[in-house]
Each structure stands twice: as structure tokens, then as C-alpha cells.
## 1
Amino acid sequence: MKAGVNQRPAQPSPEAIPSHSDFGKGEIAPAAENQNGAMRTDTLESALETATCLWEAVLTLRDHPATDPDAIALALAIRETCNAVGTADLRLTVVGWTGAVETAWSAVADGYDLCFDWDFVPGWIIEHIDWSDPAHPTIRPEPLRQHTDSAANAGPVAALPPSLRPPADEGN
């Protein structure tokens, strides 16, 4: 588990979810195997955790924006993308950002005082994703700088909204 990531909830009963060995490894094997065919579970689990954090952050930014205009503009842009490409395609696009987020996290993890899932990932999305083309949200070549004037930026959001965290009753 990444440092700074909130603790995982208690595991459901074994009857509710099949064991890890029951999942079809054939679907993920080409991406998760090394040259000798051995599974790199630490890398795979890290990438899966990052991908889920990304998707959760996109949904939170879309469905629970802060009340400031930049956060609302971002929520509307994400909704427009969902309408243009569909949720399944957007989810696959977001999964494609996993490597970039892990690279960015590895550069700052030792000195980052906040948590990975509720602070770093949403902030990375806000600073690095260009939602201006609803059919093709992309990683910006240069991230937006926080504390800049939103009118000077091409993207819908210029700074991290102050209330990105979900309500406390979500338990994360």
C-alpha cells in the first residue's frame, strides 16, 4: 500500500468475494508478468490501486464539486466528457493515466505531507488533465500552476478547489 493512502476497509466475508486465486489471470497476465512469467503482484497491485484512486477522484470531482466556480467548471467538463464518450471509455482513458500519476507520485512521495488518494490524485487531475475536448481528455504537456489566474489558463480549472475531500461519512 502506498504511504499516505488511507487504510483499507475491513475485508468482506470470504463468501461474498472470490479468492484472489480465482480471478482469471489470463486477462492481466501480459501486462503483469515479467520475462520469466512470474507475476509482479506488488507492481500490479500498486497500479490497480492508483487506477482506482484516479477513477474515484474523477467521479468525486464530477459529482461533488466544491462551490467555487473552477470546481463547478471542472465538474461540468467531466460530465460533458462522460456524455461524449461514455463512462466505460472514460474509465479506460483514466486508467491510462496510471503510469503518469505513479511517476509524479514517486517524485514527491517522500516530501508530500498529505495523502495520496484524497489529496495528491485529485490535485494531479486538476493540474494535469485537459478536459477542453470532451471526446479526448488528455494529459497537458505542462501542468497548470496553482495560484494562477484561471482566465490565463486554457483548462477549466486553475487551482485545487478547497473542499475536494468527500464528506466524512464516507469513511475514507
Note: The CA atoms of residues 60 and 166 lie 7 Å apart.
## 2
Amino acid sequence: MRLNHTAVHASDRYLSAEFLAVLLGLEVGKPFGPFLPVDLGNGVTLDYCEKRDEPIQPQHYAFLVPEDAFDAVIARLDAVGVTYFADSGHTDPGRVNHMFGGRGAYFDDPDGHNMEIITRPYARP
């Protein structure tokens, strides 16, 4: 069993999907009904859908990125002026962490979703 897709609420599905796709070096797919997919390249899509009748409830999304792509994502964050943080509480700006022998950083998307990039999966007991 594996995750196939999940819906991500956004106030503007085009803005949010493009934001993530540009930062992670991905592409936005063609609309599918109310959804605008970002294919993560591992059989999973984030399907952005607009929710304008009530506030967006921020969620957390973590992306395992190859070590050799991490610096490029950080450079794209810098280029578009998005602050990244070493910690999930967003108290250590402009820094990355080195948990589990890899690197990681957190940043917000346009609707306040807490996005995380990591180069190593978390060690689980």
C-alpha cells in the first residue's frame, strides 16, 4: 500500500501549486476537475483545490529531496525571498538543520502550510 494523492487546500490553487513546483523543481499538471496536481515523481500527487469560503487550516508536508538537489531548493527560496528555517517552529531563520545525518529546512507556502525539505528520512524507533 502507498499514498497516491492528497488534496491541499489553497486560496488560489494556481499560485500555490506553481509556488511549490518552482521551488522543488517540479511541474504543475493539467487541471483535473477542481484539482491542480503537482506530481512529486514517485507516484504521488499533491492535488491543489481552492477553498475560499473559510480560512485554510495549515498542514505540514515534508519532502525527501536528493542531497544534490537540496542546495538548489535553498537557492530558489533565497531567489524568491522566502525565508526558510532550521526548525519547525520557525525560530531559526536562514539556517538549515542537520538531523539524522542529513539536512533539512522549513518554509511556509502562500497559505501558511508548513513545508519541509529533508535529505534523510527521520529515524523511527
Note: The beta strands are 5-10, 35-39, 45-50, 60-64, 104-108, 114-118.
## 3
Amino acid sequence: MTNHGSGGDERPAGQDGNAAVDVDFRRIPCAYRDDKNLSVKVEEGSVRSRGRLGLRFLFQGGQTDIAAVEVAQAVDGASDAAPSQTTWRYMTRSEGSPGVWLTSRAPPGPLRLRIVITAGSGGKWLRSDGAVLPADWVPGGVYDTGLRVADVAASTCGGASCDEDGDEELR
């Protein structure tokens, strides 16, 4: 990298002309006031009649990432319907909008969700107890999943150096 006005005479470090920069990274747990549940916002391009659904997750606490999202039609009166009664359809991450999950095969009617969250190396499934999206969901609508996410990655120092407080230092 050169400084503006140096005429470009300075060359960066490295054989290919790119400079290496050391970066320290530390994940900070996200905590929301009023103990908010994980919510979803239906993206504006969603069309219920065509089965096209885009979801953005809001109020995702802890140090977590959403690794997978599935949607299914909610069965009336059966929050824990047998697997044969529930057909889960996967959603994919949007390439153009980080944090948005998409499907072109959303079932009709009220919808329930299940997601995989990861915090560090492990992951776990979370499933809504009932319908998250009503049968008449609308683009732009925000809906409460009833799930609370507050997982924090375990602080282990195997393979990385730790500072005096025992916090992990990633390099």
C-alpha cells in the first residue's frame, strides 16, 4: 500500500504485492433489553401465492450464527407433530443479502420454523412450538418465533493464546 501523493514509488511487503496485516478478532455476545425473542421479518420480495418466502432474523442474541433454516406448515393442535405429518423444506442463504434465508417452495397456511444455531464448534436445532407466520403473512411483517437465543461460545484456549483474563485471543 502506498500513501496518497507518494508517486507510487513505495512497494508493499509480500511477494505478490499484497501487504499482510495482523488482525485480532473477538466475538462479543449480543444482549437485547427486555429479553426479546428471536423474530423474523418477511422480506419485501416474498409472494405468498407463489410460495416465495424470504426471512431475515432479528434479535439474535449471544455469539451465534444461523447455519440452517427449514420451514413447514403448522399443524393445528399439534405442536410436536410426528415426522410423517410434518414436511420440512429447507431454505437457502441469499447471495445478495447476507442474513436473508430464501425458499421458492413455502407451503401454504400458517408456518413453523426450525433452525440450526452454532456457537463455536457445536450446533443445535431450535424449533418453534407452533405457527410463527400466520396463514395471511405479509411482506414487511415482523413475527415472534417464541425462541430465545443467548448461547455463548465456550472460551477454550486450545491452539490459541490466552491473555491474563483467560479470554481467547484469535490470530
Note: The domain at 37-144 is CATH 2.60.40.760 (Immunoglobulin-like).
## 4
Amino acid sequence: MKKANSDEVSHRNSVPILAWDFHYEYLNELKNIFNDLKKVNKISNQFTWDQKNLDIEQRIKEEVVVVTDLNLKIVFASNGIRRMTGYKEEEVLGKTPKIFQGPTTCKTDLEEIREAIKLQIPFEKTIQNYRKDGRTYQCKINGAPVFNLKGKLTHFIAFEKEVLSA
């Protein structure tokens, strides 16, 4: 009878291995978000960004964040870039967002994005992008110019997420 009792106690105190896997993934995701925030805050502090309308801390949890310099070279991409595109951050740094575009990306949409960048105004577009393996996906981009506290343009930021079709 005692043996049954000890088995019962051990089952109550055990956690299925699968639960640990989920816990580990969650902790890794939190670590990645924290590291992403640290990197983007370093850029922000270096260039004294006016962050009041950017809401980076909240949006970085749900969306991919891409920051480019004034020449549109990528200087930061959050960890989610790999899940969405197949590219690691190191592979996109120094490249332009054209790395994600291909033959079926709408030229009109790209022209409208270029015009918004030239006029230094925010934009929102959903375009067809390409993953590293060549597969396409619909990408909703919410882009904006980033100004420093003196009002000088320093970067462009894009919050991106894959639009899943029904």
C-alpha cells in the first residue's frame, strides 16, 4: 500500500518533459526579445531618437523590427526575421530590404514606399516578399522615418509581420 502512495506523490510532483520544452522555448523567446531591445536601445541612445510614437518595446514582441540607415542599409533586424524570412540577422545586416523582394513584388507598391521614404512620412503596405528559400509570403510593413530629439532624420524603422491567408 505504501508503494502506491509513493508513486502517487511522485506523479504529483513531476512535470511532463514536453512542458519543459515549452518553458525552454518561452525563456529563449524572452531572452531574444530582451537582446533585441538592448540592441535597438543602443542605436536609439547613440542617435538620441525621439521614441514617443515608435512603441518599440511593445511591438518587438509581436512583429519583426527592421532598422535601416539613411542609405536604407539594414543596421538592425530583430530575431523574428529568421522565422519570417529564413535569413539570420547577420545575413541581412548591411543589405537593403530589396533582399526580400523578387519578380512578383508589386512595383507600384515599391514606388509608393520609395516616395514615402523620400517625403519622410510613415507608410503602411502589404507586399509580396521572398524567403531565403525562394518561397513567397505576404508581408505587412508599417514603416516610418526616425528623427532625433533635434528633429534630424537618422534612420527608418519598419514593423513587419506575415499576413496569413485564410
Note: The mean pLDDT is 86.
